[in-house]
Design a protein that fits this description.
It contains six helices and two strands, in the order βααααααβ. With about 110 residues, it is mainly alpha-helical. A two-stranded antiparallel sheet has the order 1-2.
């Protein structure tokens, strides 16, 4: 059985930072750094998949919820079609799962 747990925004940011090589400051900085923007979009997508609202996902990366909507749509369109995106998502999710040794206080979102 595959359980998906709601994850804190901080853990998602740390995972994206560890996998992408961008610092937390770079990932949450205002502005439109194109090098970090793809990783922000992926992070917002992961946040949504792990139970955060659009507002929470956007806030985690210091973005408005409308940016979170666009980010989620862009990454959703690439899942299964872009191997780089698929690898990034797998790596981020693996990182989060390794960090979450204890799920006792986390809400189960989905079983499969």
């Amino acid at each position: 059985m595959n359980l998906i747990y709601k994850t804190t925004p901080k853990k998602i940011l740390e995972a994206v930072s560890a996998i992408s090589g961008f610092s937390l400051n770079e990932l949450t900085a205002k502005g439109h750094s194109h090098s970090a923007s793809k990783w922000r979009q992926i992070g917002i997508y992961v946040a949504r998949q792990r139970g955060l609202t659009l507002a929470e996902a956007g806030e985690a990366f210091n973005r408005h919820f409308t940016t979170a909507i666009v980010s989620e749509k862009r990454i959703t369109a690439q899942v299964g079609k872009n191997k780089d995106v698929d690898r990034a998502l797998a790596s981020i999710n693996d990182f989060i799962e390794k960090e979450n040794n204890s799920h006792g206080d986390q809400e189960v979102l989905q079983t499969g």
